[in-house]
């Protein structure tokens, strides 16, 4: 005891008056949402402000460093990186959304079925999910992609979605188990509600808050998977522009020390991911609202 | 202390393990063979494209690719039980030898990475919980969120660009320079970049977990009691709270093995580090069936056993999880 005696466990019982201005935005990921909106709107409306064709191979100007004419420079094939960023962003974000939609739909249906099913059925489904979870997902993606043949935007979204629903379905199952015996579900059953009716009107509103975080994180994972796969040369080909496929030229860029070909798509990618994470964390239950006892 | 119940549980676990490995082997075998691609190219290289129909048939017969896929699977299974996993098409060696030559590198990268993550995450988590909502905590949280968002492959690229291409401090690929295989300093130099990618990309996820768990723990009533009886902040945080968090951390770390391993694979591919990650990637892309089978089984087995380990640890900590299903459901039904 340095200072002999210390008072512990006493806290203010009267809340300090919250300053009126800015209180509504307190703790909300305003900046992330704004940046995200900016990126999305930019990608959707890029036809208006992008002058160059992102697919045009300007061989006279290949590997040009950022300058006034080419704001972000050009890649080794002479394509303008500035326009590629916006058109590629469309594909990247689209893949993120589509595969999340697929994963969420599968997770909700399977999780709800498992949660409502008999004990044995539930056990079977959950063991199957455990096994699927134990297969390294990168391997599954590579193999599935090989089966589907040449990678297109939809096929890659499908592959990522199909491999990404397992942990979400476990969470949903637990939630459904807890609410399926409540009075309102029984009442709805008695009135002749079908499975999907109950799922949509009674179960989903209850587990949506706990799943929201996972949904947003799954967008993030999907974007990362797409870019990793395209970078490794298993995903989208170089002709289909996405943030990942832009980085698949990285090897040549490294040889030429063309930092802009690696850094610029990467910074856009990471910014999107950070914003998504902040948004997702907002939906997660906050732990430190109460006072610390320490 | 061993009674019937223990044996039952043990048998159950072994059965689950074997079942999972079996399902995994079927899955990988069928999917890899149904995938388009020519395994002969992997074996004969470019010569395969110039082969006449008869030569092709002879080669396929030799490699046992002519039979139907079920026959092939059963033959593979029989051989596997005798410990023969076939030869790698690309390296023309026994697959166990190919893997044996490479697995050490992966274990070094993954193992050191794992230990560093484990220790650093603990330290960072405690630091953040200690400084809760102060400047240091907020800064670390911000930086941590950003680093945990950076995809591994891009982090690798950025580091190569900075430290290998621009500054020329560190080598950009491989595990050793040619002719310096036994030079420790050289190996360490090659390890720095891949290792930092593995650590940086996973560190914050676990540090954040520790931080949040500690913050929950700090709000328990016993902390107040401990403080009232005169323990200082440090004693309570490290002696009581951290102690209560540790078991959950161990089970989390067991679960983290697959993620770290997966990360190692990607990092290996970017750095062309000769480990089993690059090997898996090559074999999946170029239809090196036997090699791919053993590699995926190996990875799968590590993942499955780590998951089971994590489950056992958390059951030890929280005996409620161990109750057999029926009682658990009755409890849920009642509530």
Describe the fold and architecture.
The complex is a heterodimer of chains A (294) and B (335). Chain A contains 12 helices and no strands. Chain A is mostly helical and 294 residues long. In chain A, helix 3 packs parallel to helix 6, helix 8 crosses helix 9 and helix 9 runs antiparallel to helix 12. The longest helix of chain A has 38 residues. The radius of gyration of chain A is 24 Å and the shape is globular. With 335 residues, chain B is an all-alpha fold. Chain B is built from 13 helices and no strands. The C terminus of chain B is likely disordered. The chains are: A mainly alpha (294), B mainly alpha (335). Chains A and B meet through helix 4, helix 5, helix 9 and helix 12 of A and helix 1, helix 6, helix 7, helix 8 and helix 9 of B.
Topology:
The complex is a heterodimer of chains A (294) and B (335).
Chain A: H1 30-44, H2 46-49, H3 81-116, H4 119-134, H5 137-148, H6 153-163, H7 166-179, H8 183-190, H9 195-232, H10 243-247, H11 250-255, H12 259-283
Helix pairs in contact in A: 1-3, 1-12, 3-4, 3-6, 3-7, 3-9, 5-6, 7-9, 8-9, 9-12
Chain B: H1 4-34, H2 39-44, H3 53-63, H4 69-81, H5 95-130, H6 135-149, H7 152-166, H8 184-218, H9 221-228, H10 233-270, H11 276-285, H12 289-317, H13 325-334
Helix pairs in contact in B: 1-12, 5-6, 5-8, 5-10, 5-12, 6-8, 7-8, 7-10, 8-10, 10-11, 10-12, 11-12
List keywords for this structure.
heterodimer, A: 294 residues, mainly alpha, 65% helix, globular, B: 335 residues, 13 helices, disordered C terminus
Give me a quick take on this structure.
Chain A has twelve helices and no strands. Chain A has 294 residues and is mostly helical.
The main β sheet of chain A shows up as:
none
For the CA atoms, what is the radius of gyration of chain A? 24 Å
| Structure summary, number of beta strands of chain A | 0
Beta-sheet strand percentage of chain A? under 5%
Q: What structural class do you assign from the helix and strand content of chain B?
A: mainly alpha
Q: Give the overall average pLDDT of chain B.
A: 81
Distance between the termini of chain B: 34 Å
Tell me, what's the shape of chain B? flat
Oligomer: heterodimer
Percent helix among the residues of chain A?
Answer: 55-70%
Number of helices of chain A: 12
Distance between the termini of chain A: 15 Å
Largest sheet of chain B: none
């Amino acid at each position: 005891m340095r200072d002999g005696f210390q008072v512990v466990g006493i806290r203010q019982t009267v809340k300090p008056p919250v300053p009126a201005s800015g209180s509504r935005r307190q703790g909300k990921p305003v900046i992330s949402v704004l940046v995200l909106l900016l990126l999305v709107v930019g990608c959707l409306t890029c036809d208006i402000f992008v002058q160059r064709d992102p697919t045009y191979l300007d061989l006279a100007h290949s590997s040009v460093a950022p300058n006034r004419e080419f704001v972000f420079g050009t890649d080794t094939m002479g394509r303008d990186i500035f326009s590629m960023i916006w058109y590629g962003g469309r594909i990247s974000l689209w893949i993120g959304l589509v595969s999340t939609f697929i994963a969420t739909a599968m997770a909700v249906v399977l999780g709800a079925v498992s949660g409502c099913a008999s004990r044995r059925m539930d056990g079977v489904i959950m063991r199957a999910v455990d096994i699927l979870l134990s297969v390294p997902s990168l391997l599954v993606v590579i193999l599935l992609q090989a089966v589907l043949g040449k990678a297109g935007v939809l096929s890659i979204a499908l592959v990522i979605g199909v491999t990404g629903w397992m942990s979400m379905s476990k969470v949903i199952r637990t939630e459904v188990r807890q609410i399926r015996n409540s009075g309102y579900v029984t009442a709805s059953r008695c009135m002749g509600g079908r499975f999907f009716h109950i799922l949509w009107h009674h179960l989903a509103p209850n587990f949506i808050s706990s799943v929201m975080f996972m949904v947003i994180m799954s967008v993030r994972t999907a974007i990362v998977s797409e870019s990793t796969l395209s970078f490794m040369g298993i995903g989208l080909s170089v002709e289909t522009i996405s943030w990942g496929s832009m980085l698949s030229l990285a090897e040549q860029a490294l040889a030429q020390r063309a930092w802009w070909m690696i850094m610029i798509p990467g910074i856009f990618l990471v910014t999107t991911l950070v914003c998504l994470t902040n948004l997702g964390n907002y939906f997660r239950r906050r732990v430190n609202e109460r006072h610390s006892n320490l | 202390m061993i009674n019937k119940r223990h044996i039952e549980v043990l048998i159950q676990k072994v059965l689950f393990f074997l079942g999972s490995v079996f399902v995994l082997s079927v899955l990988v075998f069928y999917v890899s063979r149904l995938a388009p691609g020519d395994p002969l190219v992997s074996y004969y290289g470019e010569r395969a494209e110039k082969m006449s129909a008869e030569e092709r048939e002879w080669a396929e017969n030799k490699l046992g690719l002519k039979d139907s896929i079920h026959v092939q699977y059963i033959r593979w299974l029989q051989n596997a039980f005798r410990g023969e996993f076939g030869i790698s098409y690309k390296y023309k060696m026994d697959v166990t030898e190919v893997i044996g030559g490479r697995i050490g590198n992966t274990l070094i990268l993954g193992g050191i990475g794992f230990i560093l993550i484990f220790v650093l995450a603990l330290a960072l988590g405690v630091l953040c919980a200690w400084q809760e909502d102060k400047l240091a905590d907020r800064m670390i949280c911000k930086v941590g969120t950003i680093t945990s968002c950076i995809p591994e492959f891009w982090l690798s690229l950025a580091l190569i660009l900075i430290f290998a291409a621009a500054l020329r401090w560190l080598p950009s690929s491989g595990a050793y320079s040619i002719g310096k295989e036994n030079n420790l300093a050289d190996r360490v130099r090659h390890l720095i970049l891949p290792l930092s990618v593995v650590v940086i990309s996973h560190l914050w996820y676990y540090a954040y977990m520790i931080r949040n768990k500690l913050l929950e723990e700090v709000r328990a009533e016993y902390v107040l009691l401990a403080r009232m009886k005169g323990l200082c902040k440090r004693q309570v945080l490290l002696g009581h709270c951290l102690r209560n968090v540790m078991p959950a951390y161990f089970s989390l770390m067991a679960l983290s093995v697959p993620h770290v391993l997966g990360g190692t694979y990607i990092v290996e591919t970017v750095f062309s580090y000769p480990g089993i990650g690059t090997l898996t990637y090559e074999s999946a892309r170029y239809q090196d069936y036997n090699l791919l089978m053993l590699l995926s089984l190996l990875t799968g087995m590590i993942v499955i056993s780590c998951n089971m380990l994590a489950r056992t640890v958390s059951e030890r900590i929280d005996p409620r999880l161990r109750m057999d299903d029926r009682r658990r459901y009755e409890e849920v039904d009642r509530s």
